[in-house]
């Protein structure tokens, strides 16, 4: 995980920069427009945060309630402590029901698990059916955004990819490309024995799973195959249908700039007596895989997250480098908090620093997660665990020592501003700073006027 | 210890709680479920029908307003003719007995298959706030008819339009008690914006959603 190294390459990638621009129009402006429809948006946002907090404060009891109600409707509930546990449970379910082909609707938890590889190595055929995820499966690339997984690709790249992988004429019109994917995927929907989905919410009151989609593939995956497996994090539980109604006023608006997504599917157990469609077997896997590490204490607020992606859409760093620079499943500000806590701070050194702390993510968050504050806490932990680079620590120590000695500090800064002034070219700019390459490699550094602030302030008072 | 016990006890330990759940915690949860309070609702105007119409049209749904259910076959035939679509459809059983033949529509009352092009369904109710149809699965209301065909035609009774999703849940609790296997909220034709954030209708589900208001 080296965010810094990746980010440099992404900034220089012209195609990526073109692709990323599109995100700001639809998602950023779309969110603002759709929020304006709600006369009481601040109240709804407060209520949404309170709903998520209520669930988290008694998480074990709500999960137990969900499990009881789900089991009563014929759902089989599994618990997975690790990503490997998830993969094993899915493989076992597949083996029990003689599954050969698995169709999937978009699920970031299964990206965490590397489920596709685990199933393929067990000899199963796995087909992603969300258009974006399907494109990525063909391209053998990971998603770069949690809502718009293929935001880093241009239409031309998709045209080339489809022509090559489908062995078909190269289409360039977006609706034609969508139809091509629809026609390729329809037979898979009709023949797969197992459907794997995530769940945006688990409803404790009814033991239901809820998924939010636009394409309709989520409905197919939960309706057509004889086995359905929904895989989601333990934090996704919400008490009641009323609570979920409040959250659904915010999730689509923040996710895609829609008042509501095309489909919201609430599924409760397997096919009932007399039903002509629906799965015969319905499994839910509740996943920990690092989530309990966030419980109890300041980081618990992060588990309110409803995975809308607004924090990354509004982040100046994400907007500049895209999702792949972050190195793991979750990019942007939420990823910079989740990745270090899920896979270890020592494996994600740069991420807590991959933010300007400008505060846009917190403003955009529908459930009021104080993302900049949590990033700051992670930076603190990095320091406490000795994970900061030695030169940064040494420089800060030196500065701290100096700052506690005002006379010496004044002298040092007086010398420094004069030295910097002497280094300037006739335009008052410094082309290259010793030990300050980060500032001057790509732009000039404006030189100071030759006096420190304290000197100027003292003079104006006198 | 099982994964379940490990996860639950980790949650409790990290929150500084005793390993066994106290009665008061269970009572708190049970009471909240019994009350299931509503959150703050946005203003949606006084006229639910007008709001539904405006919102549904904004989602690229089309609407035809009929005077009586007897007009359904003619309205369907007219809609299909207007788009140049072949008049061959599947429908939910409640519409099987209408005079389709008289309007030249070949109608089959059965579960939809992957190659059916037109599906005709009813709706449990509709939500004015967002212009959304609410569908409940059941032996006589199979979900595939609103999903697999390229064109979905839904018959909606005007008195079944409620204001918000909370009202739809209340109606369902009152009439069904428990949730059916699947509740699907449908808000216009299926769509995707995965390629260059360009909205395209007809991803995997219907390209068209047409509502017949009766």
Detailed description of the structure:
The complex is a heterodimer of chains A (462) and B (214). Chain A is built from 22 helices and twelve strands. Chain A is α/β, with parallel strands linked by helices and 462 residues long. Chain A has two domains: 39-292, NagB/RpiA/CoA transferase-like (Rossmann fold, 3-Layer(aba) Sandwich), CATH 3.40.50; 390-461, no CATH class. In chain A, the strands form three sheets. Chain A has a six-stranded parallel sheet with strand order 1-10-7-4-2-3, sandwiched between helices. A four-stranded mixed sheet of chain A has the order 8-5-6-9. In chain A, a hairpin with a 4-residue loop joins strand 5 and strand 6 (208-213). In chain A, helix 9 (155-166) crosses helix 10 (174-191) and helix 16 (332-343) runs parallel beside helix 18. The longest helix of chain A is centred in the first third of the chain and has 22 residues, at 14-35. Chain B has two domains: 3-35, no CATH class; 48-213, Rossmann fold. Chain B contains five helices and twelve strands. In chain B, strands 1-12-7-4-2-3 form a six-stranded parallel sheet, with helices on both faces. In chain B, strands 8-5-6-9 form a four-stranded mixed sheet. In chain B, strands 10-11 form a two-stranded antiparallel ribbon. Chains A and B meet through helix 2, helix 3, helix 4, helix 8 and helix 10 of A and helix 1, helix 2, helix 5, strand 9 and strand 10 of B.
């Amino acid at each position: 995980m080296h965010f810094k190294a990746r980010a440099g390459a992404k900034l220089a990638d012209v195609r990526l920069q073109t692709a990323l621009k599109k995100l700001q129009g639809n998602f950023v402006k779309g969110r603002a427009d759709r929020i304006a429809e709600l006369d009481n948006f601040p109240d709804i946002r407060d209520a949404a945060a309170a709903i998520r907090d209520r669930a988290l404060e008694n998480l074990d009891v709500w999960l137990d309630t969900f499990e009881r109600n789900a089991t009563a409707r014929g759902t089989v509930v599994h618990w997975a402590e690790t990503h490997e546990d998830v993969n094993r449970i899915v493989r076992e379910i597949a083996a029990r029901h003689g599954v050969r082909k698995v169709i999937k609707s978009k699920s970031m938890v299964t990206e965490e698990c590397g489920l596709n590889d685990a199933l393929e190595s067990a000899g199963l055929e796995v087909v992603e059916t969300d258009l974006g995820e399907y494109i990525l499966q063909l391209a053998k690339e990971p998603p770069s955004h949690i809502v718009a997984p293929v935001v880093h690709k241009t239409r031309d790249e998709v045209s080339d990819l489809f022509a090559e992988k489908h062995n078909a004429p190269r289409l360039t019109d977006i609706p034609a490309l969508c139809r091509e994917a629809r026609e390729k995927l329809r037979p898979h929907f009709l023949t797969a024995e197992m459907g794997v989905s995530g769940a945006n919410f688990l409803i404790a009151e009814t033991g239901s799973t809820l998924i939010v989609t636009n394409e309709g593939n989520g409905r197919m995956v939960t309706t057509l195959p004889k086995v359905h497996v929904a895989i989601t994090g333990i934090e996704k539980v919400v008490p009641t249908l009323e609570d979920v109604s409040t959250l659904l006023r915010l999730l689509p608006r923040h996710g895609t700039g829609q008042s509501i997504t095309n489909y919201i599917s609430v599924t409760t157990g397997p096919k009932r007596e007399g039903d002509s469609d629906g799965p015969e077997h319905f499994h839910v896997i509740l996943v920990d895989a690092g989530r309990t590490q966030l419980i109890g204490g300041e980081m618990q607020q992060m588990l309110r997250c409803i995975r809308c992606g607004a924090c990354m859409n509004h982040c100046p760093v994400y907007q500049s480098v895209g999702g792949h620079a972050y190195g793991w499943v979750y990019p942007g500000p939420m990823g910079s908090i989740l990745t270090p806590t899920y896979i270890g701070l020592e494996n994600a050194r740069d991420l807590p620093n991959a933010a300007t702390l400008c505060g846009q993510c917190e403003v955009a968050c529908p459930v009021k997660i104080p993302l900049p504050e949590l990033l700051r806490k992670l930076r603190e932990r990095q320091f406490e665990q000795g994970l900061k680079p030695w030169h940064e620590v040494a420089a800060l120590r030196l500065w701290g020592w100096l700052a506690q000695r005002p006379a010496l500090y004044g002298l040092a800064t007086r010398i420094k501003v004069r030295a910097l002034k002497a280094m300037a070219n006739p335009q008052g700019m410094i082309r290259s700073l010793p030990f300050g390459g980060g500032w001057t490699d790509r732009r000039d550094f404006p030189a100071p006027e030759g006096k420190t602030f304290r000197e100027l302030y003292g003079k104006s008072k006198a | 210890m099982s994964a379940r016990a490990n996860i639950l006890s980790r949650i409790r330990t990290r929150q500084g709680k005793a390993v066994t759940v106290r009665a008061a915690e269970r009572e708190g949860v049970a009471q909240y479920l019994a009350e299931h309070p509503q959150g703050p609702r946005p203003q949606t105007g006084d006229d639910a029908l007008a709001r539904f119409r405006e919102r549904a049209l904004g989602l690229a749904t089309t609407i035809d307003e009929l005077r009586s259910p007897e007009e359904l076959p003619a309205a369907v035939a007219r809609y299909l003719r207007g788009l140049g679509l072949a008049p061959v459809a599947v429908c939910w059983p409640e519409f099987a007995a209408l005079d389709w033949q008289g309007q030249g529509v070949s109608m089959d009352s059965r579960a939809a298959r992957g190659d059916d092009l037109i599906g005709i369904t009813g709706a449990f109710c509709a939500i004015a706030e967002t212009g959304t149809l609410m569908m409940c699965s059941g032996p006589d209301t199979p979900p595939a008819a609103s999903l697999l065909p390229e064109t979905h035609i839904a018959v909606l009774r005007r008195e079944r339009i409620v204001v918000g999703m909370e009202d739809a849940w209340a109606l369902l609790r009152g009439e069904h008690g428990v949730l059916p296997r699947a509740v699907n909220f449908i808000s216009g034709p299926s769509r995707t914006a995965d390629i260059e954030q360009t909205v395209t209708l007809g991803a995997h589900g219907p390209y068209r959603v047409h509502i017949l208001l009766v």
